[in-house]
Every structure is written in C-alpha cells, then in structure tokens.
C-alpha cells in the first residue's frame, strides 16, 4: 500500500511541476510517466487486497483449529469419564460379589455348625445363626458403602474433566472473538484504503478532464475560421499577463 501512496504523490508532483499552457489554466503532463505511475498503482492494489484476504483466511483457519481442539478435548474427557465409571462399577460389583460369596459361605458354615450343635440345644443354634446373619449384613453394608464411594469418586472425576472441557470451550469462544475483531479491523482498514485511493484517483481524473477540455478549447480557437491572421502584438500582450 506504501507504493500506491508513493505513486499518487509522484502524480501530484508531476501535475504541480508541469509546464503551463499559454492563455489557459491547464498544463502539459508527460503521458508516458503518468501512464507508468497509473500502472504501478494498478499493480500495487491487488497485492494489498490479497493481504487482507489472507488475514480473513487465517481467521477461518484459527477458528477451525480451535473448534477441532475443543471437540477432541471434550471427546477425550467423556471417554476418560466413561472409562473411570466402568472401572468403578466393575470394582464395586466385584466387591459386592465377594461379600455375597463370603456371606453365603459363612451361612453354609453356620448351618453346618448348627446342624452339629442341634444336640446341644436350640438356643446356641439360634445365637450362632444370628451372629452369622449380622456378620453377613455387615459385610453387605460394607460392600455397598465401598460401591457408593467408588461411584462418587468416578462422578467427581467426571465433573472435573467436564469442567476442564468447559475451560477449553471458553478459550475457544475468546479466540473466536479476537479473530472476529481482527477480521472487522482488517475490513475497516481495507475500506478506508479503497476510499482514499478512489478519492485520489477521482481528483486526478477531474484534473486530467479539465486539462483535456482546456486543450480542446485552445485547439478550437486556433482552428476558428474567423481568425485569418495572427496578431503578434496581441499574443505578446497576453503572454506578458500573469497566470
């Protein structure tokens, strides 16, 4: 974009330093230099526009990468949480099964012992069975408590992973906001640049148009049929006038 401004400044310098046309407010500009500077401006503009488009393309790439990373993090957190829940559930089920097996074994031993102790009295048998049932109930309660503790720990771990995923989503939202703001700023700068260049070119176009109209009027005056002779004294008088 610096080359565009530099070329416009050179055009202004050429017009300001151009030799004036006698009896007119116009001037004579070198066509080759003017056309060359206009070509430079034309060649410089697409490059600046491409830079602005690169900024917009980079914005889409950043948003895509952030979205992909957020999705991967959320998927990994969910997978780890499900794995922890499955492990906790399996461990609790194993402990409950062991407790039941132990209780059943103790009940079997109690029944066997009770059968052997029938001869000694029903009171001792009932006391022994009650103790066996109490121990079995205690083991079952302990297994349930361990199962609930394992499930609670799994849920807490899952909540922690989900919280980390929410942090990633928040970071993704902030990055999207920053990228969007950068895109808006790039679009604003490009619009201001286009407006400035268009205004400068319009001024130059108007100047050239006035010059062409002045030259055309001068040629028409020179070719007017009523002027059959050239008054040298009148021309000398007009040439000595300022402007």
Structural class: mainly alpha
- Annotated CATH architecture: Orthogonal Bundle
Q: Under CATH, the topology is which?
A: Helix Hairpins
Task: Quickly name the level 1 CATH class.
Answer: Mainly Alpha
Quickly count the domains.
1
Q: What is the string of helix and strand elements?
A: HEEHHH
Number of helices: 4
Q: Residue-averaged pLDDT, rounded?
A: 79
Question: Rough shape?
Answer: rod-shaped
Cα-atom Rg, whole angstroms?
Answer: 48 Å
Helix content: over 70%
Our measurement of the CA-to-CA distance between the termini, rounded to an integer number of angstroms, reads 37 Å
- Counting DSSP E segments of at least 2 residues, the number of strands comes to 2
Instruction: Report the portion of residues in β strands.
Output: under 5%
Low-confidence stretches: none
Sheet with the most strands: spatial strand order: 1-2
Biggest sheet record: 2 strands, antiparallel
Keywords: Cell cycle, Cell division, Coiled coil
Region (Disordered): 218-243
Coiled coil: 67-98
Protein name: Cell division initiation protein
